[in-house]
Write a structure and sequence with these properties.
The protein is mainly alpha-helical. It has 10 helices and no strands. The longest helix is centred in the first third of the chain and has 24 residues. The radius of gyration is 17 Å and the shape is globular. The two termini are about 15 Å apart. The model has no long low-confidence stretch (mean pLDDT about 90).
């Protein structure tokens, strides 16, 4: 791995780690699907003008957005809303475990002995974390968040399998184009009228939305897809 690739890869945990903590604050003002709809909408509005339309991929991207964004973030952030940010950030790393397993099944990318050992250690850590005092009586949140992690990993494997011809910015832009209206409609029917949430939100909550859209998604997801 070159230094450039290493630095790009480093952007992912940096932007996502801060973003996950800030999202917890945003969930005090916006319901999960509405928050994510605005986040991906901002990312799409920033990037879509600068990347070509991914002709031949639009149907696949619509399905991928439904799986890896709409369903996944509906589950993950509903779980986050029901627990503290710190254990949630640790639990969300289970995406790596699910990703390795699903990648082995769907892509034929067999894990080596070191990766298998890492999965075993990580699973032990998850069980210890779930049994700890920070997650007492939080089983609904745990199930929602881990379900979202599994769906996210499945969605990323689908992206790897079906969109290898697209750039990171294209993927970020057009997943946002597809996911934002999906999430908004889901929010309207599941979470109710968005207007009261939008009008009552303080300036700090809108700052969170901007960070999630610009830094966590435009920068973080583009680096991830790259």
């Amino acid at each position: 791995m070159s230094v450039r690739d290493f630095l790009i890869a480093l952007l992912v945990p940096l932007t996502w780690g801060f973003g996950f903590a800030l999202a917890k604050s945003g969930l005090h003002h916006f319901p999960p699907l509405l928050l994510m709809s605005m986040r991906f909408g901002i990312a799409a509005l920033i990037l879509v003008w600068f990347v070509p339309i991914p002709r031949g991929y639009l149907v696949k991207l619509c399905f991928i957005a439904l799986v890896s964004a709409t369903i996944q973030y509906g589950l993950t952030f509903s779980g986050l809303a029901r627990m503290d940010a710190t254990p949630a950030i640790l639990l969300v790393q289970s995406e790596v475990i699910f990703g390795v397993v699903i990648g082995a099944i769907l892509l034929g990318e067999k894990p080596d002995l070191r990766q298998i050992l890492g999965i075993i250690i990580a699973l032990a850590g998850i069980m210890i974390l779930i049994g700890g005092p920070a997650l007492t009586n939080k089983m609904t949140g745990i199930v929602l968040l881990l379900s979202g992690c599994f769906i996210w990993a499945f969605g990323q494997v689908l992206i790897r399998k079906f969109t290898s011809g697209l750039s990171g910015f294209q993927l970020t832009a057009w997943v946002g184009v597809m996911a934002s209206p999906q999430m908004f409609l889901a929010s309207f029917f599941v979470e109710g009228n968005p207007v009261p949430f939008l009008t009552a939100a303080p300036l700090s909550a809108w700052g969170t939305v901007i960070y999630l859209g610009v830094v966590m998604t435009v920068v973080g997801y583009s680096a991830w897809y790259y």
